Every structure is written in structure tokens, then in C-alpha cells.
Amino acid sequence: MNRYVISVLVDNHSGVLSRVAGPFSRRGYNIDSISVGETLDPTKSRMTIVAHGDDAIIEQITKQLSKLIDVLKVAILPAENSVYRELVLIKVRADDQTRATISDVVDVFRAKIIDIAPQSVTVEITGDRPKIQALIDLLTPHGILEVARTGLVGLHRGDQNILTQEEIENGKAVL
Predict the structure, then answer these.
(1) CB–CB of 142/98 below 8 Å?
(2) Which domain range does residue 116 map to?
(3) Is 134 a domain residue?
(4) Tens-digit pLDDT profile for residues 135-158
(5) Environment class of residue 124 by beta-carbon count within 10 Å: exposed (0-12), middle (13-18) or buried (19+)?
(6) Beta 71-76 vs 112-117: how paired, if at all?
(7) Do the domain assignments include residue 174?
(8) SS3 for 172?
(9) Residue 169 counted as domain residue
């Protein structure tokens, strides 16, 4: 089973998320993560869906998604031609003796300490999965208290977009 990142441009109104998730649940396929946010055009949203499957399964899902009335465009974001990021907040047990060590580790990963409490610190990191996992692995011995993840977001690299230049010029959507 391969990991696929699917970018879906949709009309921004209620019920769209459940309709997009429907083909996955009807077929019994798990969504690893889903992130949704408005584009520059507030009437449109972009969904980034991460799922596992083989080529045939993902092709079937993307064809079904493309048929949905609220879906404007579906694109697979291949790893070699795309950039992916995830935001993670990690609350770590910290005291006066360990806080400096944790801060040094956080700095190496270009992460930030965004909250300090008497018995903990909260760290914010943005990056790809291996970078985030490496930080989590180094912070685990200190005692991770909580983790919150946004889910993956991604875009094609370079000048490639989910919509063609012609579709953008014809007013299909402002990204």
C-alpha cells in the first residue's frame, strides 16, 4: 500500500467535507489525515487528503471525487514534485534543570517554544513527517504530555498548479 496525497479544490459550503469523505468510507478506506482551508477566494476551499492504497484504489477514488458536484478539481500531489508540511504542537514535561536542554533541541529543529509553564513547555514545529518524528523522538525521554497535529498540507512544486492557467484566467477560481 502506497501513501497518496490528494489535493481537492471544492466549493466552500456546509456538507462538502462529508460528501468528499463519503467515497473513502463507502469503500472502507481510511483517511490518514485531512486538512481543509479557504483559498484566496472565500467561496472555494482546498482539501489535502492523505490516504493509503494501491494505484487502482486511488484512481477509483479520484474519479469518484471528480464526479461530485461541489468538487472543482482533484489532483494527486506526488512526493517528488510537491512540497508537504504539517504543524504540530507538543507539550513536554520540563523543569528548571531540563528546560535549557529542551530549548537547545528545539532550536536545532528551527522549532519554537510558544508557552512556558512551571512544569512544561509547549513546542511548535512545522515540517515534513521525518523532521517532526525526529523531534518527537528526542523529546520523548523528557515526557511528552500532549500532541496536536494539523494534518498534512501540500502544493505542487514550481509553476504547476491544481488549476491550469486557462482555468484561472476563465475565472474558475482564484487560488
Answers:
(1) yes
(2) 83-153
(3) yes
(4) 999 999 999 999 999 999 999 998
(5) middle
(6) unpaired
(7) no
(8) coil
(9) no
**Contact at 8 Å (CB) between 88 and 152?**
no
With H, G, I as helix, E, B as strand and everything else as coil, classify residue 8: strand
Mark whether 72 and 87 lie in a shared domain: no
User: 31 and 88, same structural domain?
Assistant: no
Per-residue pLDDT tens digits for 10-31? 999 999 999 999 888 888 888 9
**Dihedral-angle region of residue 151 (phi above 0 means left; psi in -120 to 50 means alpha; beta otherwise):** left
Cα–Cα dist 145/3, whole Å = 29
C-alpha to C-alpha distance for 43 and 173, rounded to whole angstroms: 9
CA–CA separation, 95 and 118 (whole Å)? 7
Task: Choose one of 32, 47, 76: the last residue of a domain.
Answer: 76
CA dihedral sign of residues 100, 102, 105, 111: negative
The CATH code of the domain that includes 16 is: 3.30.70.260
Which three three-digit cell numbers place residue 52?
A: 493509503
In angstroms, how far is the first alpha carbon of the chain from the final one? 31
Burial class (CB in 10 A: 0-12, 13-18, 19+), 29: middle
